[in-house]
Amino acid sequence: MFAKMNVAFALLGMMLVASAFAKDESANECEWKAEKCSPTYSSFMAHEGKTAPVENDLRQYASQLVDKSFHFLIMSSGFNKYELDRPGFEKLYRKISDKAWEDAMALIKYQSRRGSFGHLVQPVANEQYGKVLDVNELKSLQFALNYEKTMAKEAHAIHRKVSHAHSNAGSNDDSYHYDPDTAHFLDENIIEYQSGVVRDLAGYVHNLRHFTDQQSASDLGNHLFDEFLAKA
Hints:
Layout: H1 2-23, H2 29-32, H3 53-78, E1 80-81, E2 84-85, H4 87-113, H5 137-161, H6 180-211, H7 218-231
Antiparallel strand pairs: 1-2
Helix pairs in contact: 3-4, 3-5, 4-7, 5-6
GO molecular function, one term: ferrous iron binding
Protein name: Ferritin
Keywords: Iron, Iron storage, Metal-binding, Signal
């Protein structure tokens, strides 16, 4: 009896595996042609002759991270001028710039690991990087907070696409969008950091606003807050 049950379970397992492979159009390609063997699967697979949507999303996001890195690098240099010497603000924005660059490189490497070509796409036309040089201490923090929140929302949108939350109602085939590995990468490398930096920047905005409410004491408030950032 036990032998029959074992055989039945074995047959059931084989049927489930066969069913899973039947849904995946690329599952057997590698066995037939060596040139068809690739590391792409789940959301990185092309579907119906179209490029996998997550590839375009990640390329765009990596490009935005590079763009962000240059924005904050330029803004940090603006606080290192002889007429506006704010080493604390320079340190803060240089740190954000470096993190954006590291995230972009990590995202490009991740795409390569998944069998995609993680190149950068055309940046936004006529981007005015010089505008970040015209902000003061408080305005720069407000700019930084809005920038980080915008990037966080876009990361969440990509995460939603590769999670079950994006699954079409009534559809049992989620193999072309559900990708827990990509979701985990975004969680660990980008999203967790963003929630922390957004919280910090929001706190900085309110603290500095209170320090500089009185016009007569605004210079002293900016100086003291800059010293705080330099030691952070």
